[in-house]
Design brief:
5 strands; five-stranded parallel β-sheet; about 210 residues; Rossmann fold; alpha/beta
Length: about 210
């Protein structure tokens, strides 16, 4: 396990982040397959989700839009799902020496409810330290894309967060870039404007640079 101040020398816990429409979720499976092809034991997960409790909370957070949620309630529901994900999936995998690739993690809360929302990012970071037990990713791959281009990729019914509009997406991108600038040893920005295969190759090159 690790904490937020002591990343390991090799990346074993990798998180993909980015605004909605950046393509990050589509890149999880190819990255996992590539890592497994290199002989690694890899666990894939999504946050929120990947546990029965997390999947139930995910439904409320994203798809039960008839249920009103205040900003603090929303943030704490994400934290509850994450706490279960860490204790049931991420921590056991890391303890046995496996790799973990997660579709989102704590940086998403800091950006979505903090930088782009109405809550203090540092408060969210503090609460996140409790929910994660201090387990922080070794490498955050930030798939960066212009918000207008990202919006064009959302050709499906929008969830609660995706439906918050163009200004929200712009604040999200700015928040992610601010987080990346503040943590250059942990974040790597990947240009997500190209096709899926090209972005996947860029991701693999970044990971290979970190792990050898």
């Amino acid at each position: 396990m690790t904490d937020s101040t002591s990343p390991r020398s090799t990346a074993r816990f990798i998180v993909l982040e980015g605004i909605d429409g950046s393509g990050k979720s589509s890149q999880v499976a190819p990255l996992v397959e590539w890592l497994r092809g290199r002989g690694h034991d890899v666990v894939a997960c999504r946050d929120p989700g990947a546990t029965p409790a997390g999947d139930a909370i995910r439904q409320i957070l994203l798809h039960r839009q008839e249920i009103p949620l205040g900003p603090t309630t929303e943030m704490l529901l994400y934290m509850a799902a994450r706490a279960q994900l860490v204790s049931a999936v991420i921590a056991p995998a890391l303890e046995r020496g496996a790799w973990v690739v997660s579709d989102r993690y704590l940086p998403a809360n800091i950006v979505y409810q903090g930088h782009a929302g109405s809550l203090d990012p540092e408060t969210i970071r503090s609460v996140g330290g409790i929910a994660t037990g201090g387990i922080a990713p070794d490498l955050v791959l930030l798939l960066d894309l212009d918000p207008a281009a990202a919006a064009l990729r959302l050709d499906r019914p929008l969830d609660r967060l995706e439906s918050r509009g163009d200004d929200f997406r712009r604040r999200l991108r700015d928040g992610y870039l601010r987080e990346a600038a503040a943590q250059p040893d942990r974040f790597e920005i990947v240009d997500a404007a190209a096709d899926m295969a090209t972005v996947g190759a860029r991701i693999r090159a970044v990971v290979e640079r970190h792990v050898g």
